[in-house]
Amino acid sequence: MITLVVVASVLIAGVTVYQYKEQGNDYHNERLERKEEQLIKSINYTLKETTYPISTENLHLIFSEDIYKIASIQNVNFNIYDLEGNLIKSSRPTFESNSIATCLDAEVLNYLRESGETKFVEEKRAAGDNYQAIYTYIYDLKFKPIGILNLPYFEDNTFNNMELKEFLFRLAMVYILMLLVAIILAYFISKYITRSLQTISDKMYRTNLTRQNEKIYLESPGEEIGKLVDSYNRMIDELEESAVKLARSEREQAWREMAKQVAHEIKNPLTPLRLTVQSFERKFDPTDPEIQKKVKEFSKTLIQQIDTMSNIATAFSSFADMPAQQNETLNVVKVVKLALEIFNEDYIHFITDEEEVVAKLDRTQLIRVITNLVKNAIQAIPDVESPRILVTVATVGDRVKISVADNGLGIPDENKHRIFEPKFTTKSSGTGLGLGMVKNIVENYGGTITFTSKVGKGTVFTIDFPKEQKK
After folding, report:
1. pLDDT tens figures, 88-113
2. Domains (range + CATH), the chain
3. With 60 as the cut, is the pLDDT of residue 376 above it?
4. Cα–Cα separations (whole angstroms), residue 131 to 120, 148, 150, 156, 353
5. Could you tell me the CA-to-CA distances from 187 to 190, 216, 421 in Å, in that order?
6. Which of 45, 129, 172, 433 is most buried (CB neighbours < 10 A)?
């Protein structure tokens, strides 16, 4: 409705302007023709009444006084030229005669002589207005050309333009009123039509598999809307049933996968533990003078394997039960330095250009993130000739960036898409939960973790956190 009103107003305004211009052109053309016709009649009358011989040479005598009378009666100014285009007489006052051409253009003369037409119309723009001039022959009583009449005419469109502006103003007022009415009608009609659809849209937008969804109840809905509401309500029932089944299935699958992983990881240290016990049992000799030393080595081996199983249990416990987040305002630079103090490797370097970078994070979890990334970097450079690990902290805009780079083995392309999967690992031992836990912590604080890696060159892990804004 609104578009139709706007388009109609533009089209009518355009047609109105065009129509006014066409009417103005027709009016001026008709007026010029009438003045020309009346002027020629007056000239012919003067030629009939004159006592001078009617010839080109006598035109200045014939119209010496009558030219002013004719101009006054007809309310126009005109000029008379001889057949060669030279000015003979003008009805304009003497002080205005300087602006009159004393000789006609060759174009006018050639047209009148060669075209066979008795009239030439010249159209120009002068002083911002349209200007027309008629050039036509003056004939004697025997219809022989004796001179050329020039009738200049300036189109005065002041009145038409004023009328056009007034009309367009009134038209604009009408269409503004119509536009306001159309907007109000469109608003209420659309609200009436779409209120049921809006209710359905809101319910669909809030539909979520993780919680119970409300059904739609409408009073006196239309037939189509009623069918849509019934379909939505049926979908909600089916969705809830599917969500319950899916949740149960996911829980069962998760526990099965976790049980398999725990069993697999525990079996790894149990095998060497069993072989060690069997070997000790077979070789045990109480009378052996080095029995104390062998028992001590046996006990050390058992303790190492038991510690390995304890670490596995701790890792799975940490992944399954992450501690609650403690948002605290802390200096990231200081906390990262603290996390690196537990490592004794001299090839670990820390670089930052800032003394303080403030963010809202959990100190313990940030230390856990840095520790995991650095441990992974250390494990990636066991056979590198000149190992190097570089940890950096920097501010980029309103974000804090922490990067851990190593010159280790790198990550093969086929493993890159699985690097953050909870159970994925390329090590012979380990749970594969470290990077999954890191990613979980980072994303819980509105951050991101990315990496770039090249086989044989090394890997760079980059963490991005929101920076605490200074007040």
Report:
1. 888 876 544 455 678 888 888 888 88
2. 1-155 (3.30.450.20), 223-320 (1.10.287), 328-466 (3.30.565.10)
3. yes
4. 14, 19, 13, 9, 78
5. 5, 24, 52
6. 433
Tokens at 176, concatenated: 């503004």
Rounded to the nearest integer, the mean pLDDT of the chain is 79
N-terminal to C-terminal alpha carbon distance within the chain? 50
**CA–CA separation, 349 and 389 (whole Å):** 6
One DSSP character per residue, 120-167 reads: EEEEEEETTEEEEEEEEEEE-TTS-EEEEEEEEEE---HHHHHHHHHH
Sequence letter at residue 288: D
Q: Kindly state the DSSP code that residue 211 receives in the 8-state scheme.
A: S
Query: Global pTM?
Result: 0.38
Nearest to residue 112, comparing CAs of 102, 124, 104?
104
Decide if 418 contacts 432 (C-beta within 8 A). Answer: no
- Residue 81's φ and ψ, nearest 5 degrees, are -120, 155
Q: Which of 419, 423, 426, 418 is nearest to 257 (CA)?
A: 423
Give the dihedral of Cα atoms 241, 245, 251, 255; nearest 10 deg.
170
Q: Report, as an integer, the average pLDDT of 363-371.
A: 85
464, burial (CB in 10 Å: exposed 0-12, middle 13-18, buried 19+): middle
Pick left, alpha or beta for residue 136 (phi over 0 → left; psi -120 to 50 → alpha; otherwise beta).
beta
Tell me which amino acid residue 73 is: I
The neighbouring-strand residues paired with 126 are 129
Structure tokens of 228? 């849509």
Q: How distant, in Å, are the alpha carbons of 94, 155, 162 from that of 15?
A: 45, 22, 17
Phi-psi region of 454 (alpha: psi -120 to 50; beta: other; left: phi over 0): beta
pLDDT at position 220, please?
A: 65
